[in-house]
């Protein structure tokens, strides 16, 4: 599988060179597909690297005892804490998947992991600052994004706590009992080496799904007309759904999506742009493929439905404020 993906990447990188050949004619849309695909990868890979390093640290240095000491026993307080920690944690929706996988594998309740998963890419300090700058140094949209996103994540995580009792990790993604206990008895240098080894394994494991998701997102961006989507948004409710669909397909990094969202200020109402800014970091195409590689399909589908419904309801309620 990695060999096939590597060959695919090399092919896409070589497209511009191939196009210079007079003896070879390729579809005119292929260079655009190549450019979008590579831009998504280049944008996401640094955050995935950070994510797998943190995941490696959790794997080696964090034990079940640490988890029990940090996570409140009260379900509601655990969800609130996970959302607050996520809000203060600079992470991309791609890089946060391996972190959440390790946390849940180590014993963090699924609902707390979901709270962290949703708020980390959405309302961390870097995202809020970029939103503030994208909308002309105006705090209104940044505050709306932060408030609506936090409350939506809180509600989604609490619903997950009711619907699912197990951790929902795929069996082959689980962590053995010995791994849960950590390696406190080993020398520090050995533990660092093991952390890096785990990070490397995690990176290659997650990257193949990132590449697949990036390619599908690039394909849809190339061959599905954005204008045809925009024409569907004739009312406030329709435009909110259109912008959410756009956020899902574009699969933008949450640190940069505010600048794209701001470009629609003269096309759609504030609620629709808010839907774009809240929905995309919570769930997009490449992120969903990565989640499917880690969690059971039923859980990912339910999470997708919950995010879609809750975000749609909350952004439209925000217009009443």
Automatic annotation (TrEMBL):
Compartment list: Cell membrane
Its cellular-component GO annotations read: plasma membrane
Q: What's its membrane topology?
A: Multi-pass membrane protein
InterPro entries of this UniProt entry?
Answer: DUF318, UPF0718
Annotated transmembrane regions = 36-62, 74-99, 111-135, 142-164, 209-229, 241-261, 267-285, 297-317
Q: Which UniProt key words apply to this protein? A: Cell membrane, Membrane, Transmembrane, Transmembrane helix
**Where does the source fall among the domains of life?**
Bacteria
PANTHER family with a match to the protein in the record: UPF0718 PROTEIN YCGR (PTHR34184:SF4)
Q: Which family does it belong to?
A: Belongs to the UPF0718 family.
Query: What name does this protein carry?
Result: Membrane protein
Q: Which organism is it from?
A: Ureibacillus sinduriensis BLB-1 = JCM 15800
